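Throughout this review, each integer encodes one residue's backbone shape. One record appears below.

===
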Amino acid sequence: MRMLKTKKHLLLLVVLIALLTVAACSGKPAEAPVEPDAPEFRGSLEDWKQMGARVCTLSPFTLAQNSLHGVFGKSGNLAAVPPKAATIGPADVINAKHRFDTHAITVHGTTTAWQRFTTRLVLHGPVTPLVPESILQTLRTDVYVSETIAQNIETDWNKGY
């Protein structure tokens, strides 16, 4: 495989993958979803839907979440996480031949899952650029929600903090 030497080549690869199949993922930037609230993706809903792949600034929330991944030391070291990423754009999601969305992220196989709340916003909340994956509500998409993510959101006093 030849090395990708320019930002243009990297974006082209991201778009090509996106056009073949879009695997949406709520809040998991490693798979190149549209970054919420990135300055590079600002605009009205209609303008936003026309935006393609680009390199964008990652939000503080994405940086914090990514800092917990093994490749960044899994300890909250924000400085270890690159502040920008190549991502697909809403237009790439809309124009994809097939869309598959999965909601199954937990913390080390437990029932602890930050994705439980995000899934509800994505699948049942308003369609908005602030929850980019919510656009899937308007498109034919195969969605998988694990039993763990589908559990009710409720206090677990036995688990504690």
Summary: Confidence is low (pLDDT under 50) at residues 18-31.
